[in-house]
Amino acid sequence: MAHDHHDTAPGHGHRHGRNHHHGPTDIDWAEMGPVLESSAELFASLYERALGWLAQEVTEPGLIVDAGSGPGVVACLFAETFPGARIVAVDGSEPLLERARARAERQGIADRFGTIAGELPDALGDLDYPADLLWAGRSLHHLGDQRAALAAFATRLAPGGTLALMEGGLPPRYLPRDIGIGRPGLQARIDAVEAEWFTRMRRDLPGHVAETEDWPALLAAAGLKPARSHTFLLDLPAPASDRARAYVVASLSHLRDRLTEALDAEDIATLDRLLDPADEASLHRRPDVFVLEAHTVHTAVRPG
Q: Can you name the residues that pair with 117 across neighbouring β-strands?
């Protein structure tokens, strides 16, 4: 599983398989790597605020683990936020871990940056010693038994160590409610379709166990003491930068390919116009494209 993340969970808004991605098992991660990396970089300001918030309660960690690291953008931000820590990026995709190692090399932190290739949570068994901070950024919902995975995460924490779980938030918004073409409210209808898709995705995971998504309660059930929850906003107003615009195009293109059977003909036609570079009303040309996303982080501590 590759993360780093923006993916396909409701309220996550990463729909083109970017920053994370679990979908079809035949994804070419070497090919997807640049897209995922660019997407994660677009969210750097959100991650930086989240990491600064974590630094208020996690002081001088020795080992930080990014569980589901993808191409390592967030893992390298951890190295920047905590200059005394060793960082280990864990992911199921070796091509993405190669990008993470190359990024660490470019940033001059390779001497305290390691990687582990393998599926969560079992890959965490290869850690040399317990983690002071374990970050799971929108990776947990791709594991069938989330309760068991959290319990496994908890066992990899040092006494007094913190588990930081990024799950939930709000559906993304890229356009006004009325965009002048098609029926107003396109993204709200997409949200409903995507929520159904997400339910099916979870249900089809190996070892799937249905859970109420009360993350603090699940953290407590794993033997941890829930601490804080906070939601972080990415607000990139119109007119969108080239990178933000490309992100929106990629997100809606992925959605167009994946969800069309559940959308009506008018909404499909609207999406096709939005994605057509030659159309004056397209995402490539219109001045009202923006990115507004909200992601929630929950923390819990292993008793000392």
A: 91
Residue for token pair 């809606």: 252
Task: Tell me the pLDDT of the chain averaged across its residues.
Answer: 91
Q: Which amino acid is at 195?
A: A
The pLDDT of residue 26: 54
Helix, strand, coil fractions of the chain, as percent rounded to 5: 40, 20, 35
Read off the pLDDT of residues 246-258 as tens digits, 9 standing for 90 and up.
999 999 998 998 8
How far is it, in rounded angstroms, from Cα 49 to Cα 124?
Answer: 26
pLDDT, tens digit (0-9, with 9 covering 90-100), for 59-83: 999 999 999 999 999 999 999 999 9
Residue matched to tokens 């790597």: 33
> Tokens representing 201?
């995705």
Name the strand (E) or helix (H) holding 90: strand 86-91
Give the Å distances, CA to CA, from 49 to 22, 165, 192, 227, 233.
Answer: 26, 15, 29, 18, 9
Distance CA 101, CA 115 (A): 8
Please state, in angstroms and rounded to a whole number, the distance separating the CA atoms of residues 169 and 180.
28
Cα distances (angstroms) measured from residue 298 to each of 56, 98, 158, 229:
14, 29, 18, 4
Rounded to the nearest angstrom, the gap between the alpha carbon of residue 46 and the centroid of all alpha carbons in its chain is 11
| Block residue for tokens 């059930």 | 221
Q: Can you give the pTM of this predicted structure?
A: 0.91
Q: How far is CA 270 from CA 156, 172, 265, in A?
A: 48, 18, 9
Dist. CA 78–CA 173, nearest whole Å: 27
Using 70 as the pLDDT threshold, list the residues of the chain that sit under it: 1-27
DSSP 179-227: -SSSSS-HHHHHHHHHHHHHHHHHHTSTT-------HHHHHHHTT-EEE
CA dihedral 19, 7, 39, 176 (to 10 degrees): 180
Residue type, position 160, single letter: G
- In sequence order, the β-bridge partners of residue 296 are 231
